[in-house]
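Onboarding guide, step 5: your first structure request.
Type a short instruction followed by the sequence, for example:

Predict the 3D structure of this protein.
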Amino acid sequence: MDQATASPTVPAMLKQGFALLNAGQPRQAAQLCQQLLAANPRLVQAHFLVGLVALDMRDRKTAVQAFGSVTSLQPDHAAGWAHLAKLFMEEGQVNRADAALKQAEAGNTQDPLVRDVLGAVYSRMGDHTLARAQFEQAVAGAPENIQFKLNLASNRVYHGELAEAAVDYRAVLEKVPGHAQAHWALASAHKARDDHHIQQMRTLLARPDLPERAQAFLQYAIGKECEDLQDWEGAIAAFMAGARARRATVAFDEAAEIEMFDFLTRHCTADWLAEGEGSDHRAPIFVLGQPRTGTTLIERIITSHSDVTSAGELQQFGLSLRRLSRHQDPKRFSAALFKSALDLDYRQVGNLYMEATQRMQGNTARFVDKLPVNYLLIPFILKALPNAKIVHLTRNPMDACFASFKQLFADAYLHSYDQVEMARHHARYRHLMAHYHAQFPGRIFDISYEATAQNLEPNARALIEYLELPWQAACLDFHAQAATVATASAAQVREPVHTRSIGRWKKYQQHLQPILQTLSNENIEV
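The system replies with C-alpha coordinates like these:
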Protein backbone atom coordinates (compact mmCIF):
# COMPACT_ATOMS: atom_id res chain seq x y z
CA MET A 1 0.00 0.00 0.00
CA ASP A 2 1.44 3.40 -0.94
CA GLN A 3 2.07 5.44 2.20
CA ALA A 4 1.24 8.79 0.67
CA THR A 5 -2.16 7.64 -0.66
CA ALA A 6 -3.16 5.05 1.93
CA SER A 7 -5.79 7.38 3.33
CA PRO A 8 -6.55 11.08 2.97
CA THR A 9 -6.52 11.31 6.74
CA VAL A 10 -3.00 9.92 7.24
CA PRO A 11 -1.10 13.24 6.90
CA ALA A 12 -3.60 14.97 9.16
CA MET A 13 -3.39 12.21 11.77
CA LEU A 14 0.41 12.29 11.71
CA LYS A 15 0.39 16.06 12.13
CA GLN A 16 -2.04 15.71 15.03
CA GLY A 17 0.15 13.02 16.61
CA PHE A 18 3.27 15.22 16.57
CA ALA A 19 1.23 18.13 17.91
CA LEU A 20 -0.06 16.03 20.80
CA LEU A 21 3.47 14.92 21.66
CA ASN A 22 4.74 18.51 21.57
CA ALA A 23 1.81 19.53 23.77
CA GLY A 24 2.86 17.05 26.44
CA GLN A 25 0.20 14.44 25.66
CA PRO A 26 2.27 11.37 24.69
CA ARG A 27 -0.42 8.82 25.55
CA GLN A 28 -2.89 10.40 23.17
CA ALA A 29 -0.16 10.52 20.50
CA ALA A 30 0.50 6.82 21.10
CA GLN A 31 -3.17 5.99 20.54
CA LEU A 32 -3.06 7.74 17.17
CA CYS A 33 0.05 5.76 16.27
CA GLN A 34 -1.77 2.51 17.03
CA GLN A 35 -4.56 3.48 14.66
CA LEU A 36 -2.13 4.44 11.90
CA LEU A 37 -0.06 1.28 12.21
CA ALA A 38 -3.14 -0.93 12.37
CA ALA A 39 -4.10 0.47 8.96
CA ASN A 40 -0.55 0.38 7.55
CA PRO A 41 2.19 -1.45 9.53
CA ARG A 42 4.81 -0.11 7.10
CA LEU A 43 4.11 3.57 7.68
CA VAL A 44 7.58 4.94 8.46
CA GLN A 45 6.40 8.24 9.95
CA ALA A 46 4.15 6.43 12.42
CA HIS A 47 7.00 4.18 13.60
CA PHE A 48 9.17 7.28 14.00
CA LEU A 49 6.47 8.98 16.08
CA VAL A 50 6.22 5.83 18.23
CA GLY A 51 9.93 6.16 18.88
CA LEU A 52 9.62 9.81 19.91
CA VAL A 53 6.65 9.01 22.16
CA ALA A 54 8.61 6.17 23.79
CA LEU A 55 11.55 8.52 24.42
CA ASP A 56 9.19 11.00 26.04
CA MET A 57 7.79 8.24 28.27
CA ARG A 58 11.27 6.84 29.00
CA ASP A 59 10.41 3.50 27.44
CA ARG A 60 13.80 2.79 25.94
CA LYS A 61 13.01 -0.74 24.75
CA THR A 62 10.05 0.44 22.67
CA ALA A 63 12.08 3.37 21.35
CA VAL A 64 14.83 1.05 20.08
CA GLN A 65 12.24 -1.22 18.44
CA ALA A 66 10.45 1.72 16.80
CA PHE A 67 13.56 3.40 15.40
CA GLY A 68 14.78 -0.04 14.32
CA SER A 69 11.56 -0.43 12.33
CA VAL A 70 12.10 3.01 10.80
CA THR A 71 15.61 2.14 9.59
CA SER A 72 14.53 -1.29 8.35
CA LEU A 73 11.73 0.21 6.27
CA GLN A 74 13.80 3.20 5.13
CA PRO A 75 17.54 2.44 5.40
CA ASP A 76 18.58 6.03 4.64
CA HIS A 77 16.44 7.56 7.42
CA ALA A 78 19.09 9.72 9.12
CA ALA A 79 16.90 10.73 12.06
CA GLY A 80 16.06 7.11 12.88
CA TRP A 81 19.74 6.13 12.82
CA ALA A 82 20.68 9.18 14.92
CA HIS A 83 18.19 8.28 17.65
CA LEU A 84 19.40 4.66 17.60
CA ALA A 85 22.98 5.87 17.97
CA LYS A 86 22.00 7.95 21.00
CA LEU A 87 20.06 5.10 22.61
CA PHE A 88 22.87 2.60 22.03
CA MET A 89 25.42 5.04 23.44
CA GLU A 90 23.34 5.63 26.56
CA GLU A 91 23.28 1.86 27.07
CA GLY A 92 27.06 1.70 26.72
CA GLN A 93 26.85 -0.23 23.43
CA VAL A 94 29.52 1.90 21.79
CA ASN A 95 30.15 -0.35 18.80
CA ARG A 96 26.45 -0.44 17.87
CA ALA A 97 26.24 3.31 18.45
CA ASP A 98 29.23 3.87 16.19
CA ALA A 99 27.67 1.77 13.42
CA ALA A 100 24.36 3.68 13.68
CA LEU A 101 26.28 6.96 13.73
CA LYS A 102 27.96 6.11 10.42
CA GLN A 103 24.57 5.35 8.88
CA ALA A 104 23.16 8.66 10.13
CA GLU A 105 26.15 10.61 8.83
CA ALA A 106 26.01 8.85 5.42
CA GLY A 107 22.83 10.71 4.55
CA ASN A 108 24.58 14.07 5.03
CA THR A 109 21.29 15.49 6.26
CA GLN A 110 21.04 19.18 7.08
CA ASP A 111 18.08 18.62 9.43
CA PRO A 112 19.02 20.61 12.57
CA LEU A 113 17.16 18.17 14.81
CA VAL A 114 19.30 15.31 13.52
CA ARG A 115 22.47 17.39 13.88
CA ASP A 116 21.59 18.14 17.50
CA VAL A 117 21.06 14.43 18.28
CA LEU A 118 24.37 13.57 16.60
CA GLY A 119 26.05 16.24 18.71
CA ALA A 120 24.66 14.58 21.83
CA VAL A 121 26.04 11.21 20.67
CA TYR A 122 29.52 12.60 20.04
CA SER A 123 29.40 14.33 23.44
CA ARG A 124 28.57 11.05 25.11
CA MET A 125 31.50 9.47 23.28
CA GLY A 126 33.75 12.20 24.69
CA ASP A 127 34.49 13.69 21.26
CA HIS A 128 33.50 17.27 21.99
CA THR A 129 35.21 18.63 18.87
CA LEU A 130 32.99 16.59 16.54
CA ALA A 131 30.04 17.43 18.81
CA ARG A 132 30.83 21.13 18.36
CA ALA A 133 30.50 20.88 14.58
CA GLN A 134 27.10 19.18 14.91
CA PHE A 135 25.75 21.70 17.43
CA GLU A 136 26.96 24.61 15.29
CA GLN A 137 25.12 23.19 12.28
CA ALA A 138 21.99 22.66 14.39
CA VAL A 139 22.06 26.29 15.54
CA ALA A 140 22.76 27.53 12.01
CA GLY A 141 19.79 25.57 10.71
CA ALA A 142 17.40 26.60 13.49
CA PRO A 143 18.75 29.79 15.11
CA GLU A 144 15.58 30.31 17.13
CA ASN A 145 15.76 26.90 18.85
CA ILE A 146 16.68 27.53 22.47
CA GLN A 147 17.76 23.96 23.29
CA PHE A 148 20.20 23.90 20.37
CA LYS A 149 21.77 27.13 21.64
CA LEU A 150 22.07 25.71 25.15
CA ASN A 151 23.76 22.55 23.86
CA LEU A 152 26.29 24.59 21.89
CA ALA A 153 26.97 26.80 24.90
CA SER A 154 27.57 23.75 27.12
CA ASN A 155 30.03 22.50 24.52
CA ARG A 156 31.88 25.82 24.75
CA VAL A 157 32.19 25.31 28.51
CA TYR A 158 33.73 21.88 27.93
CA HIS A 159 36.32 23.57 25.69
CA GLY A 160 37.10 26.17 28.36
CA GLU A 161 35.46 28.95 26.33
CA LEU A 162 33.61 30.34 29.32
CA ALA A 163 33.24 33.93 28.09
CA GLU A 164 31.78 32.76 24.78
CA ALA A 165 29.41 30.39 26.60
CA ALA A 166 28.25 33.20 28.86
CA VAL A 167 27.40 35.28 25.76
CA ASP A 168 25.31 32.38 24.45
CA TYR A 169 23.49 31.92 27.75
CA ARG A 170 22.69 35.64 27.90
CA ALA A 171 21.35 35.47 24.34
CA VAL A 172 19.01 32.67 25.41
CA LEU A 173 17.87 34.69 28.42
CA GLU A 174 17.13 37.71 26.26
CA LYS A 175 14.59 35.58 24.40
CA VAL A 176 13.35 33.53 27.36
CA PRO A 177 14.04 35.56 30.53
CA GLY A 178 12.49 32.92 32.75
CA HIS A 179 14.60 29.98 31.51
CA ALA A 180 15.80 28.67 34.88
CA GLN A 181 18.35 26.21 33.52
CA ALA A 182 19.97 28.93 31.40
CA HIS A 183 20.29 31.15 34.48
CA TRP A 184 21.99 28.28 36.33
CA ALA A 185 24.32 27.58 33.41
CA LEU A 186 25.25 31.26 33.14
CA ALA A 187 26.09 31.38 36.84
CA SER A 188 28.35 28.36 36.40
CA ALA A 189 30.12 29.85 33.37
CA HIS A 190 31.10 33.25 34.78
CA LYS A 191 32.22 34.85 38.02
CA ALA A 192 29.73 37.36 39.40
CA ARG A 193 31.07 40.89 39.89
CA ASP A 194 27.85 42.35 41.28
CA ASP A 195 24.40 41.17 42.36
CA HIS A 196 22.52 42.25 39.21
CA HIS A 197 21.94 38.68 37.99
CA ILE A 198 21.10 37.53 41.51
CA GLN A 199 18.33 40.12 41.73
CA GLN A 200 16.95 39.01 38.35
CA MET A 201 16.75 35.44 39.62
CA ARG A 202 15.17 36.43 42.92
CA THR A 203 12.47 38.25 40.98
CA LEU A 204 11.76 35.05 39.05
CA LEU A 205 11.59 33.07 42.30
CA ALA A 206 8.83 35.37 43.53
CA ARG A 207 6.50 34.07 40.83
CA PRO A 208 3.66 31.90 42.15
CA ASP A 209 3.53 28.22 41.17
CA LEU A 210 7.13 28.11 39.93
CA PRO A 211 7.99 24.40 39.44
CA GLU A 212 10.33 22.94 42.05
CA ARG A 213 12.91 21.95 39.43
CA ALA A 214 13.04 25.58 38.22
CA GLN A 215 13.33 26.77 41.83
CA ALA A 216 16.31 24.45 42.29
CA PHE A 217 18.12 25.76 39.21
CA LEU A 218 17.64 29.36 40.32
CA GLN A 219 18.56 28.80 43.96
CA TYR A 220 21.77 26.92 43.16
CA ALA A 221 22.70 29.66 40.69
CA ILE A 222 22.09 32.32 43.33
CA GLY A 223 24.17 30.37 45.82
CA LYS A 224 27.09 30.13 43.39
CA GLU A 225 27.04 33.85 42.59
CA CYS A 226 26.70 34.77 46.26
CA GLU A 227 29.85 32.74 46.89
CA ASP A 228 31.56 34.67 44.08
CA LEU A 229 30.69 37.86 45.99
CA GLN A 230 31.66 36.32 49.35
CA ASP A 231 28.09 36.75 50.59
CA TRP A 232 28.23 33.60 52.70
CA GLU A 233 24.82 34.03 54.35
CA GLY A 234 23.12 34.61 51.01
CA ALA A 235 24.91 31.60 49.56
CA ILE A 236 23.97 29.10 52.24
CA ALA A 237 20.35 30.29 52.30
CA ALA A 238 20.15 29.70 48.55
CA PHE A 239 21.89 26.31 48.67
CA MET A 240 19.54 25.11 51.40
CA ALA A 241 16.45 26.33 49.55
CA GLY A 242 17.71 24.77 46.33
CA ALA A 243 18.35 21.46 48.04
CA ARG A 244 14.83 21.42 49.53
CA ALA A 245 13.32 22.10 46.12
CA ARG A 246 15.42 19.45 44.37
CA ARG A 247 14.83 16.86 47.11
CA ALA A 248 11.10 17.24 46.54
CA THR A 249 11.56 16.10 42.92
CA VAL A 250 13.65 12.95 43.49
CA ALA A 251 13.07 9.60 45.17
CA PHE A 252 16.14 8.55 47.17
CA ASP A 253 15.72 4.97 48.40
CA GLU A 254 18.06 4.92 51.39
CA ALA A 255 16.98 1.44 52.49
CA ALA A 256 18.01 0.05 49.10
CA GLU A 257 21.37 1.79 49.36
CA ILE A 258 21.96 0.33 52.82
CA GLU A 259 21.12 -3.13 51.48
CA MET A 260 23.55 -2.65 48.58
CA PHE A 261 26.45 -1.51 50.77
CA ASP A 262 25.82 -4.37 53.19
CA PHE A 263 25.84 -6.86 50.31
CA LEU A 264 29.15 -5.57 48.99
CA THR A 265 30.70 -5.73 52.45
CA ARG A 266 29.55 -9.32 53.05
CA HIS A 267 30.35 -10.83 49.66
CA CYS A 268 33.25 -8.87 48.14
CA THR A 269 36.13 -10.38 50.06
CA ALA A 270 39.70 -11.51 49.42
CA ASP A 271 38.52 -15.13 49.14
CA TRP A 272 35.93 -14.21 46.51
CA LEU A 273 38.52 -12.17 44.58
CA ALA A 274 40.93 -15.13 44.48
CA GLU A 275 38.44 -17.30 42.57
CA GLY A 276 38.73 -17.31 38.77
CA GLU A 277 40.87 -15.23 36.43
CA GLY A 278 40.46 -11.85 34.81
CA SER A 279 41.55 -10.23 31.58
CA ASP A 280 45.21 -9.46 30.89
CA HIS A 281 44.64 -5.90 29.69
CA ARG A 282 46.86 -3.28 31.39
CA ALA A 283 45.60 -0.06 29.81
CA PRO A 284 42.82 1.15 32.18
CA ILE A 285 43.36 3.61 35.01
CA PHE A 286 40.24 4.14 37.13
CA VAL A 287 40.00 7.46 38.98
CA LEU A 288 37.12 7.29 41.43
CA GLY A 289 35.68 8.39 44.77
CA GLN A 290 32.96 10.73 45.92
CA PRO A 291 31.90 13.51 43.52
CA ARG A 292 33.46 16.96 43.98
CA THR A 293 36.54 15.56 45.74
CA GLY A 294 39.16 16.30 43.08
CA THR A 295 38.72 13.43 40.63
CA THR A 296 38.89 15.81 37.65
CA LEU A 297 42.05 17.46 39.00
CA ILE A 298 43.79 14.10 39.38
CA GLU A 299 42.59 12.93 35.97
CA ARG A 300 44.06 16.07 34.38
CA ILE A 301 47.40 15.48 36.09
CA ILE A 302 47.52 11.90 34.80
CA THR A 303 46.30 12.68 31.28
CA SER A 304 48.86 15.46 30.87
CA HIS A 305 51.27 12.53 30.47
CA SER A 306 51.94 11.72 26.83
CA ASP A 307 51.21 8.02 27.35
CA VAL A 308 47.67 8.52 28.73
CA THR A 309 44.33 9.47 27.14
CA SER A 310 41.29 10.82 28.97
CA ALA A 311 38.36 8.56 28.07
CA GLY A 312 35.90 10.56 30.16
CA GLU A 313 33.31 9.33 32.65
CA LEU A 314 32.46 5.93 31.25
CA GLN A 315 29.44 3.84 32.21
CA GLN A 316 30.78 0.75 30.46
CA PHE A 317 32.10 -1.27 33.38
CA GLY A 318 28.79 -1.29 35.22
CA LEU A 319 26.98 -1.91 31.95
CA SER A 320 29.27 -4.88 31.22
CA LEU A 321 28.20 -6.46 34.51
CA ARG A 322 24.58 -5.81 33.65
CA ARG A 323 24.80 -7.22 30.12
CA LEU A 324 26.67 -10.41 31.05
CA SER A 325 24.49 -11.11 34.09
CA ARG A 326 21.35 -10.32 32.02
CA HIS A 327 20.16 -8.14 34.87
CA GLN A 328 16.98 -6.24 33.93
CA ASP A 329 16.24 -4.10 37.00
CA PRO A 330 16.24 -0.45 35.86
CA LYS A 331 18.06 0.65 39.02
CA ARG A 332 21.59 1.52 38.02
CA PHE A 333 23.26 -0.15 41.01
CA SER A 334 21.63 -2.46 43.54
CA ALA A 335 22.26 -5.48 45.75
CA ALA A 336 20.36 -7.54 43.17
CA LEU A 337 22.70 -6.46 40.36
CA PHE A 338 25.78 -7.35 42.38
CA LYS A 339 24.29 -10.67 43.44
CA SER A 340 23.68 -11.55 39.78
CA ALA A 341 27.29 -10.54 38.96
CA LEU A 342 29.11 -12.54 41.66
CA ASP A 343 29.72 -15.67 39.59
CA LEU A 344 30.37 -14.21 36.14
CA ASP A 345 33.33 -15.14 33.97
CA TYR A 346 35.50 -12.15 34.86
CA ARG A 347 37.90 -12.58 31.97
CA GLN A 348 34.83 -12.05 29.79
CA VAL A 349 33.79 -9.01 31.84
CA GLY A 350 37.20 -7.39 31.38
CA ASN A 351 37.31 -8.15 27.67
CA LEU A 352 33.79 -6.80 27.12
CA TYR A 353 34.68 -3.57 28.96
CA MET A 354 37.78 -3.13 26.79
CA GLU A 355 35.79 -3.79 23.61
CA ALA A 356 32.99 -1.41 24.62
CA THR A 357 35.40 1.44 25.41
CA GLN A 358 37.68 1.02 22.40
CA ARG A 359 36.54 4.19 20.65
CA MET A 360 37.28 6.34 23.73
CA GLN A 361 40.68 4.83 24.60
CA GLY A 362 42.66 6.96 22.17
CA ASN A 363 45.99 5.93 20.65
CA THR A 364 48.07 5.88 23.83
CA ALA A 365 49.13 2.89 25.91
CA ARG A 366 46.92 3.86 28.83
CA PHE A 367 43.60 5.61 29.36
CA VAL A 368 41.67 7.05 32.32
CA ASP A 369 38.08 6.13 33.13
CA LYS A 370 37.01 8.86 35.54
CA LEU A 371 33.57 7.90 36.79
CA PRO A 372 33.50 8.71 40.53
CA VAL A 373 30.79 6.18 41.43
CA ASN A 374 32.97 3.34 40.14
CA TYR A 375 34.19 3.11 43.75
CA LEU A 376 31.22 0.77 44.25
CA LEU A 377 32.68 -1.54 41.60
CA ILE A 378 36.27 -1.76 42.88
CA PRO A 379 36.12 -5.50 43.71
CA PHE A 380 34.63 -6.31 40.30
CA ILE A 381 37.22 -4.15 38.53
CA LEU A 382 40.03 -5.90 40.42
CA LYS A 383 38.61 -9.28 39.46
CA ALA A 384 37.98 -8.44 35.78
CA LEU A 385 41.09 -6.32 35.18
CA PRO A 386 43.73 -7.34 37.75
CA ASN A 387 46.40 -5.27 35.97
CA ALA A 388 44.34 -2.06 35.98
CA LYS A 389 45.28 0.77 38.32
CA ILE A 390 42.78 2.21 40.80
CA VAL A 391 43.24 5.78 42.07
CA HIS A 392 40.91 6.79 44.90
CA LEU A 393 40.44 10.41 45.94
CA THR A 394 40.17 11.25 49.62
CA ARG A 395 38.94 14.55 51.01
CA ASN A 396 37.96 15.97 54.39
CA PRO A 397 34.46 14.57 55.09
CA MET A 398 32.89 17.96 55.78
CA ASP A 399 34.37 19.56 52.67
CA ALA A 400 33.36 16.51 50.62
CA CYS A 401 29.78 16.55 51.91
CA PHE A 402 29.35 20.28 51.55
CA ALA A 403 30.83 20.29 48.03
CA SER A 404 28.15 17.80 46.96
CA PHE A 405 25.38 19.52 48.94
CA LYS A 406 25.95 22.81 47.09
CA GLN A 407 26.07 21.17 43.64
CA LEU A 408 22.99 20.58 41.49
CA PHE A 409 23.56 17.25 39.74
CA ALA A 410 21.67 15.89 36.74
CA ASP A 411 20.14 12.55 37.73
CA ALA A 412 22.81 11.18 40.06
CA TYR A 413 23.77 11.41 43.75
CA LEU A 414 20.18 11.67 44.96
CA HIS A 415 21.39 11.50 48.56
CA SER A 416 23.03 14.94 48.26
CA TYR A 417 19.96 17.16 48.72
CA ASP A 418 19.38 16.52 52.41
CA GLN A 419 22.13 17.12 54.97
CA VAL A 420 21.44 14.06 57.11
CA GLU A 421 21.01 11.74 54.13
CA MET A 422 24.20 13.18 52.64
CA ALA A 423 26.18 12.50 55.82
CA ARG A 424 24.79 8.98 56.31
CA HIS A 425 25.69 8.15 52.72
CA HIS A 426 29.21 9.51 53.23
CA ALA A 427 29.63 7.36 56.33
CA ARG A 428 28.55 4.25 54.40
CA TYR A 429 31.02 5.11 51.65
CA ARG A 430 33.87 5.56 54.15
CA HIS A 431 33.12 2.25 55.87
CA LEU A 432 32.93 0.48 52.49
CA MET A 433 36.30 1.89 51.40
CA ALA A 434 37.83 0.77 54.70
CA HIS A 435 36.51 -2.73 53.98
CA TYR A 436 37.99 -2.68 50.47
CA HIS A 437 41.39 -1.58 51.77
CA ALA A 438 41.34 -4.36 54.37
CA GLN A 439 40.33 -7.04 51.88
CA PHE A 440 42.46 -5.86 48.94
CA PRO A 441 45.60 -4.37 50.50
CA GLY A 442 47.93 -2.54 48.13
CA ARG A 443 45.44 -2.62 45.24
CA ILE A 444 43.98 0.88 45.71
CA PHE A 445 46.07 4.07 45.63
CA ASP A 446 44.62 6.76 47.90
CA ILE A 447 45.51 10.34 47.05
CA SER A 448 44.48 13.29 49.19
CA TYR A 449 42.87 16.28 47.51
CA GLU A 450 44.12 18.57 50.27
CA ALA A 451 47.71 17.28 50.14
CA THR A 452 47.82 17.53 46.34
CA ALA A 453 46.39 21.06 46.29
CA GLN A 454 48.79 22.23 48.98
CA ASN A 455 51.92 20.54 47.63
CA LEU A 456 51.43 19.46 44.03
CA GLU A 457 54.76 18.07 42.85
CA PRO A 458 55.54 15.34 45.41
CA ASN A 459 51.96 14.05 45.27
CA ALA A 460 51.89 14.12 41.48
CA ARG A 461 55.22 12.28 41.35
CA ALA A 462 53.97 9.59 43.75
CA LEU A 463 50.84 9.19 41.63
CA ILE A 464 52.76 8.81 38.37
CA GLU A 465 55.15 6.36 40.04
CA TYR A 466 52.22 4.22 41.23
CA LEU A 467 50.95 4.15 37.65
CA GLU A 468 54.37 2.83 36.56
CA LEU A 469 54.87 5.69 34.13
CA PRO A 470 58.07 7.70 33.62
CA TRP A 471 57.87 11.16 35.16
CA GLN A 472 57.00 14.06 32.82
CA ALA A 473 57.04 17.69 33.91
CA ALA A 474 53.88 18.31 31.87
CA CYS A 475 51.94 16.61 34.69
CA LEU A 476 52.46 19.78 36.78
CA ASP A 477 51.01 21.98 34.02
CA PHE A 478 47.64 20.19 33.78
CA HIS A 479 45.78 23.53 33.65
CA ALA A 480 47.40 24.27 30.26
CA GLN A 481 45.98 21.07 28.74
CA ALA A 482 43.75 21.75 25.74
CA ALA A 483 41.55 18.67 26.20
CA THR A 484 37.88 19.22 26.94
CA VAL A 485 36.32 18.70 30.38
CA ALA A 486 32.67 17.67 30.65
CA THR A 487 32.16 17.79 34.42
CA ALA A 488 31.10 20.32 37.03
CA SER A 489 34.82 21.18 37.38
CA ALA A 490 35.17 22.42 33.80
CA ALA A 491 35.98 25.98 34.90
CA GLN A 492 38.23 25.18 37.86
CA VAL A 493 40.66 22.87 36.06
CA ARG A 494 41.57 25.62 33.58
CA GLU A 495 43.54 27.37 36.33
CA PRO A 496 46.57 26.26 38.38
CA VAL A 497 46.00 24.21 41.49
CA HIS A 498 44.64 26.26 44.41
CA THR A 499 43.51 25.78 47.99
CA ARG A 500 40.45 28.05 48.05
CA SER A 501 38.04 25.16 48.57
CA ILE A 502 39.89 23.60 51.50
CA GLY A 503 37.93 24.26 54.69
CA ARG A 504 35.27 26.20 52.80
CA TRP A 505 32.58 24.45 54.87
CA LYS A 506 33.73 26.34 57.99
CA LYS A 507 32.27 29.55 56.62
CA TYR A 508 28.86 27.85 56.92
CA GLN A 509 29.50 25.79 60.04
CA GLN A 510 26.49 26.96 62.02
CA HIS A 511 24.19 25.96 59.12
CA LEU A 512 25.81 22.55 58.58
CA GLN A 513 25.28 21.08 62.03
CA PRO A 514 23.08 18.22 60.70
CA ILE A 515 26.02 16.97 58.59
CA LEU A 516 28.54 17.52 61.37
CA GLN A 517 26.44 15.77 64.01
CA THR A 518 25.52 12.84 61.77
CA LEU A 519 29.16 12.21 60.81
CA SER A 520 30.06 12.29 64.49
CA ASN A 521 27.30 9.80 65.29
CA GLU A 522 28.73 7.54 62.56
CA ASN A 523 32.26 7.80 64.03
CA ILE A 524 33.61 9.71 61.04
CA GLU A 525 36.35 12.10 62.13
CA VAL A 526 36.28 15.54 60.49
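Each response can be followed by summary notes, for example: The longest helix spans residues 419-439.
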